[in-house]
Task: inverse folding
């Protein structure tokens, strides 16, 4: 993409700002996790550096959970700007005693658009210690609530929340969907 994804500009906003604008009404604390050489600054979030050198979303989740002051934490990837606040609100409301609340879309978990509790920090740390970086590697060891696609579609009928911007072509294709910002 030419620059780190969080810094990509879409309609004069970087992706992180777009995600924050969509979610800030739901959260008292927003944490952006990344490598120090990709440090970004903002007044509406706290930047936290990855606690391990490994390149893995699991390390990012772990680092964010360690830094968080809250029991419930919504995690979204930095290249998913179409996050739907109504879907996120629903996910938070149904968390209850679950450790993870995760949508299942097209037959797959969406672990980078999920709610995690701080209860799982030690389990994730064990997986990282084993150098097992698959984001869902610990799911069978914790209490997971799966949200079936038909329920997800009640809040996000087109499943826009799960679109990743991975190429300049993606950026061009979806920029018009973010004109409201």
Result:
């Amino acid at each position: 993409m030419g620059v780190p994804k969080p810094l990509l500009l879409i309609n004069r906003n970087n992706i992180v700002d777009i995600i924050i604008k969509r979610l800030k009404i739901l959260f008292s604390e927003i944490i952006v996790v990344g490598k120090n050489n990709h440090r970004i600054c903002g007044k509406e979030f706290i930047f936290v550096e990855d606690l391990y050198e490994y390149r893995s979303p699991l390390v990012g989740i772990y680092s964010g959970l360690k830094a968080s002051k809250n029991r419930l934490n919504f995690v979204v990837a930095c290249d998913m700007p179409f996050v739907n606040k109504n879907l996120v609100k629903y996910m938070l409301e149904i968390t209850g005693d679950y450790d993870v609340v995760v949508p299942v879309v097209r037959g797959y978990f969406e672990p980078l658009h999920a709610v995690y509790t701080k209860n799982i920090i030690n389990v994730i740390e064990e997986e990282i210690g084993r150098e097992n970086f698959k984001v869902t590697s610990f799911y069978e060891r914790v209490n997971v609530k799966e949200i079936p696609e038909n329920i997800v579609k009640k809040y996000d009928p087109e499943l826009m929340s799960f679109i990743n911007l991975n190429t300049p072509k993606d950026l061009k294709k979806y920029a018009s969907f973010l004109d409201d910002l």
